[in-house]
Automatic annotation (TrEMBL):
ABC transporter domain location: 22-255
Name of the protein this chain belongs to: ATP-binding cassette domain-containing protein
Keyword presence, ATP-binding: yes
Pfam families: ABC_tran (PF00005)
Keywords: ATP-binding, Nucleotide-binding, Transport
Amino acid sequence: MIEAHQLRKSFKIYKSKKGMLGSMLSLFSGEYEERNAVDSISFKIEEGEFVGYIGPNGAGKSTTIKMLSGILHPSSGVAKVLGINPQKNRKMLAQNIGIVFGQRTQLWWDLPVIDSFDILKHMYKIEDRHYRRFLKHYDDILDISQFLQTPVRKLSLGQRMRADLAAAMIHNPPVLFLDEPTIGLDVVAKHKIREFLQEMNKSENKTVVLTTHDMDDIEQLCSRVIVINQGRMVLDGSLEELRNHIGLPSILTVTYEQPPELQVVYGIERTESNGRECTVLYDRSKISSPALLQEISKWGTPLDIQMKEPDIEEVIQNIY
Ligand SMILES: Nc1ncnc2c1ncn2[C@@H]1O[C@H](COP(=O)(O)OP(=O)(O)OP(=O)(O)O)[C@@H](O)[C@H]1O
């Protein structure tokens, strides 16, 4: 459904000389170097997937999204979305994708939200009955009716994001590209946006590519993550594969009837005990959870057991 094959984008970085005069001269000297913002990225995303496209600042995430959506042309390589080449057929692609940039609205700044929607309705040639259904449906799931008459510049960030998301869905596209849609939002607004995105993916089978720095977005929404760093792909897999790749230990906390008698077990990296409480850090690739449970029950009589996988935030920090 979405394909990137050896996708690369380089930008010219003009060399600047020191001082005011130097900066002026460098404008005219034309000396530059080329830097790859995205460097030979390849992946395939199937229909209905929810993919987190993540990486540190400047990794090349937005540049990739812009190439997939036809805003930027690749320096080399090929992108295809629903079989459409964004470079060659941007208009046809626009009918089939929705885009949201969290940092910048796609709506008309000084117009009431409803006027922006009306313009989009005409641009996408949407029938009146479909448009009415759209307004009703998006009021039900994003509460947009309360600010339809408000100019975009007067909306709160959360309202603006809801308006932008609704606008991106007006033509009911099967594919959504979301570039940091939860940036700067408070907890309640983030929750609402996440619920909406989950609904779009689960009930309407939309394929979603999401860039974000928010680990809760990734944990709650994405079934797959693609990690890039300095323009290059570092990992492509499930959240579990991401955790395993980093090799951070899983954690088991046990409360025993009596202080336990600890033993050395292959796969357990560290054990900390404090009276009846015991914390076990273990490597799941070396010992399975059932086997571990069997071992630790030899140390005493467990009253309560809790398991915790490594935090995705910790995992990401380790990968960069
Ligand atoms: N138009 C441009 N001209 C020159 N360099 C650019 C241009 N656009 C992006 N870059 C550079 O390309 C690199 C990748 O930028 P990009 O915006 O894709 O990163 P990102 O992963 O989206 O970062 P962030 O998380 O900070 O939004 C950065 O080094 C950036 O400075």
